[in-house]
Structures are given as C-alpha cells and as structure tokens.
Amino acid sequence: MDFAEKMKDLFGKSAEASKVAMNKAGNAIQEFSDKTVLKIEMNKLEFQKKEAFEELGEIVFGFIDSLPEGIASNEKVVSLKEKISGINAEIEKKEKALSDLEGKASDK
Fold this sequence. Notes:
The protein has about 110 residues and is mostly helical. Helix content is about 90%, strand content about 0%. The chain has three helices and no strands. It has helices at about 5-65, 70, 75-105.
C-alpha cells in the first residue's frame, strides 16, 4: 500500500468515525431536546393546575361560613381561614400605605 492509498484509507476511516460521532451527538441532542420540551410542558400543566386550585380555593373560601357545621368548624379549615383573613388585612395595610405614598408623591 503506497502513501496515497494509506492517506485515502485514513481519511475514509476518519470520515466514517466522524459520521458515527455526529449521529450519536445528534441523537443525544434530540433526546435532550425532547426531554426538555416534555419538562417544560409538564411545568406548564402543573402551573395551570395550581392556578385552578387557587381559583377553586377562592370560591370555596367565599362559602366557608355557609358550609355544614362539621366542615366550617374543622380545625384546619378554621386555621386556614384565619391565616387568609390575616394576610388579607396585611395586604390592605400595604395597599393603603402605598396609596398614601403615591398621594404624597403626586402632591410634590
């Protein structure tokens, strides 16, 4: 085998190895991409579920006082109702403070 044939054989093997490596890399990238898309879609669905639970919770919160005594007086329900009422009071205080600050800023 002369030098030219050896070089041709070497480049042929190199090209084949590159092709195999590129196929493996392409498959790995595709698999990573597929997994990433699925994870993003799952996170999106989890967020939608959380939003639906929040909306449901707000509706149920409005009905707590009219629920049957066993449910309305449930320790956990009462605790959460008090917690939410406290948070709502804090939000109102912050909104008033913000409104006062904005009022002062517009007076200047």
